[in-house]
Amino acid sequence: MTSPGEDRSPARPGSAPAGRDVVLAVGLVGICVGGLAVFLKAVGVADVAGAGGSVVPIAMAVLITVGVAVARWSVAPVRRPTPVRRPSAPDAYAHPAPQVPDVAGEALDHAAVDADGFEHTVAALCARDGCTPVEVVGGAGDLGADVVATTADGLRLVFQCKHYADGNRVGSQDLQRFGGTCFAVHEADVAVVVTTSSFTAPAAEYAAACGIVCIDGEALAAWTDQTAPPPWQASAPGPDREPVERTSTA
Is 110 exposed, middle or buried (0-12, 13-18, 19+ CB in 10 A)? Predict the structure, then answer.
């Protein structure tokens, strides 16, 4: 709290530097006067008088001019640029958090969707069974990955989804393309190819050799109905059992 009569006007910025400049100017003038004295002593008073006394007035005029110029320069206000404050903007590089897939009954019905909807159905199954985050990443340039998820115990799942008619089987070429990217590019702990149809025998053999889990239409229905464990659990061998075969090659 301020007392009555107290000067409450804020101190003007730059007053201290201005005082230092005045002291500097006075010092420079003093140096000039001293230099003039040394000059007069060096040339001698007689020489100055012999020159008609014109040296002293000229030297004094020069000294006064220099002193006035230095004084004006020292006390002139210094204009400093005002910092520009930009309004804060949202981070352009921030990535939105992936949305949690809907796990309602209709979201799990793979028989009622097209190829794009099938990817979301698989994502919904992963979310229902405890995976988070779950992302649908299929599209142009996806390099075989349609759904990427992380299990509750930290396993990275990479799914390729094949929404095929019953008579259209997933062939070995499909598996080979996926096998070339699922581990090396997408760094999958568990790679899964899930289809609404079935797999050819060469495709199933290639998948078994590479460690890719194959989920055909029957296994997909069992996973959806929860009459079978999720593919990442069924594919992981326990201490006393062999890996579960989840494909149909008929």
Answer: buried
Tell me the C-alpha distance between 213 and 127, whole Å: 18
Helices (H), the chain: 15-43, 45-50, 55-75, 115-128, 172-179, 201-210, 217-225, 231-234
Query: Which range (95-99, 142-146, 147-151, 175-179) has the least confidence?
Result: 95-99
Report in angstroms the alpha-carbon separations of 136 from 59, 98, 100, 149: 89, 9, 10, 9
The reported pLDDT for the residue numbered 128 is: 94
Q: Could you report the per-residue pLDDT of 202-218, keeping only the tens digit for each?
A: 999 999 999 999 999 99
Question: 């059992």: which residue's tokens?
Answer: 241
Could you tell me which residues come within 8 angstroms of residue 17 by beta carbon, excluding any fewer than 6 positions away?
Answer: 78
Mean pLDDT of 27-53: 61
Write out the two tokens for 249: 């090659």
Helix, coil or strand: residue 103? coil
| Residue scoring higher pLDDT (119 or 30) | 119
> Which residue's entry shows tokens 């779950």?
134
pTM: 0.55
Helix H segments across 76-200? 115-128, 172-179
Q: What is the CA radius of gyration of the chain?
A: 43
Residue 16 CA to residue 234 CA, distance in Å, equals 79
Check if the beta carbon of residue 199 is closer than 8 Å to that of residue 217. no
